Amino acid sequence: MKGKKAVLIIGQVVLFLGLSLGWVGIAGAETWKAREMRLAAEKAAWRFGPLKLQPAILIKEAGYDSNIYYQPEATSDYWLTAGPAFDAYIVARRRVIVHVFESPQYVFFLKTKRERTWNNYLNGDVSLSFNRFLLTVGGSLNNARERWSTELDIRPRRKEKSGFISLLYQKSYRLSFEFTARTIDYTYESLEYDSVNINERLSHYEDYLSGRIYYRLNPRIQFFVEGQRGSYDFKNPLNPRDSRSQTVYSGFQFSPTGRIHGQIRLGYKSFNTLEATLPDYRGLVGDTTVSWQIMRPLVLRGSYRRDINFSVWSYSPYYIGTTWSAGPSFYIFRKKFRLDYTYSQTRNNYPLGEIPGSPPRRDDYTLNSVAVYYRIGKAAGIGITAGRWKREINVLNWDATRKFIGLNLTYDF
Prior knowledge:
The protein has 413 residues and is mainly β. It has helices at residues 3-21, 32-42, 198-202, and strands at residues 46-48, 51-65, 77-92, 96-109, 117-129, 133-145, 157-170, 175-188, 192-193, 196-197, 204-218, 221-234, 243-254, 260-273, 281-295, 298-310, 318-332, 337-353, 360-375, 381-393, 400-410. It has a single domain (3-410), classed as Beta Barrel (Porin), CATH 2.40.160.
């Protein structure tokens, strides 16, 4: 299914569901997800009648980087990414919940002027809350120059347009069901990278249909099982990477009000390339991020991500990216200061070698970082982060290291 066609189908489904469910409203009842959305809106700092705003200032690693292009011959520079952001909410009689996030950000490099740019991130959704139903329609429009994957050492501009529709049905306090359709349009700038055109190699559509079953174990923990079908269609007709996937996930979702935050999500993916000469994949995937406050001054953090990523190189249609990280956070002086340490490893496994008969390529990345934060608000902190990054590649002389130190602002204190 092409992206534009999927958007039209989503619009038709939205109209049908909106008309067919419009009579269902029963005063006073709402699903667990509608309640979470409404509570997030009520926490917003500013109110102008029905409009509620949560403003923010974003500062990302404003400091020094010894190797901004992540290459063996390092280019150092001072840089920062900063800009305003806000979440806007409108809640009408607990039935209609509107949410918009907007953040323009400027990327500044002191010496490398060609890397200076503006990025913009915009997403939003509208939810209709009924007795046992929650209908949500949303989308995003992002336009940014970033390092979109670990194998890209440059920052190509990418435009991302997406839309989705989700219907949640809560059968009882413990049991609920959710169905989601999503389409994403990725368009990269036409840029040559080591004789490869980024636009021709990576621009594509992604479409997903998924269903989830939730079972609430207690007020703060839900178990879920999820099934997902995906399609990947590349815009260049000569690109042979069109693919399909089927994935089954399972895990736990934790309430942000508990001692454990985040989610555990692991699954099995069957990934099939439509080109007969290209390899398929069967195996583990995951998207897990968890923090656990085991005692008042100590929080343990961990993450695990593993999935298929489309490769810019012609000899491998994709690589399997696996990243895990772990570290503690210590709160001292009545939680005025927070000390962080993070250790992270990433491995990219390619199914094919550089040439026929050669061993498959493998990239290994290691990151060590420390940070000190000072609380400047109820849930915000400003701090200094320093670290060392290292890359090793088994088939190319493209190993590299970088060191960095910078100022940043966090809103998860």
